[in-house]
Write a structure and sequence with these properties.
CATH architecture: 3-Layer(aba) Sandwich
Strand content: 15-25%
Mean pLDDT: 81
Number of helices: 7
Helix content: 25-40%
Largest sheet: 8 strands, mixed
CATH topology: Rossmann fold
Number of strands: 8
CATH class: Alpha Beta
Number of domains: 1
Distance between the termini: 33 Å
């Protein structure tokens, strides 16, 4: 079976087409340790669309909008997906890539949008990703409503149950889904294949990069 990834929404396609007309942007993040890669800065979330010019996104005319990518990976598949999205997003907007085990409520509060990425284990999101949601759910409840999010799932042959589980949690937070779940299937079926390190093809990672670009541009241009 091929990747279960879905096409970008119409609004995202328009953003990608418009990117060709913008001047090149320098990466907003330097190389950071694998455990936490970030360009995040604290801010007051007061968005001024009039302050935007191509290549810039401003909060109070000074502080950049932020995208938070939270992921968990046991065999490497979702890590590669999250890193691909991060690499593309940070060219458009301030971005943070953080392991679910390290992510805290403060990280969610400091960000303007989110990408959640995890494997599907036994028809559910991985336990460590669920732990992240459990720890952060009530501390940020009612404080991040309306912020945009997208999600990516690395699965063997399905991924729909994990995607629905994350969507229910996001709905409880009153987040806005701006991209349908991106599901990438590895076709691992035997215990040996499931437990083995994963390598996601560049063709499939292209969808992750497109999602990262769309989320980054949507935030930086004030579309979401």
């Amino acid at each position: 079976m091929d990747s279960r990834s879905r096409p970008l929404l119409t609004s995202d396609q328009a953003l990608l087409r418009s990117a060709a007309t913008l001047p090149p942007k320098s990466a907003s993040s330097s190389t950071m340790p694998d455990r936490v890669k970030s360009t995040a800065r604290p801010h007051n979330r007061i968005f001024d669309p009039a302050a935007l010019t191509p290549g810039t996104c401003k909060i109070n005319s000074a502080i950049m909008v932020q995208l938070l990518i939270v992921y968990h990976s046991r065999t490497g598949g979702s890590r590669q997906m999250a890193e691909a999205a991060f690499a593309a997003a940070r060219a458009e907007v301030g971005s943070t890539l953080k392991l679910a085990v390290d992510a805290e409520p403060g990280d969610l509060l400091a960000a303007d949008g989110y990408i959640f990425c995890a494997p599907e284990n036994l028809a559910a999101i991985s336990g460590i990703m669920k732990d992240f949601f459990d720890r952060c759910y009530y501390p940020v409840l009612g404080r991040i409503e309306g912020r945009p999010y997208a999600q990516m799932v690395c699965a063997g042959s399905d991924g729909e149950n994990a995607a629905r589980q994350t969507a229910r949690i996001a709905k409880g937070w009153r987040l806005r889904e701006v991209q349908e779940p991106l599901i990438i299937c590895t076709e691992a079926q035997t215990p040996e294949e499931i437990l083995a390190p994963k390598t996601i093809s560049d063709d499939k990672l292209k969808s992750c990069r497109e999602l990262g670009t769309a989320m980054g541009m949507g935030l930086s241009l004030g579309v979401f």
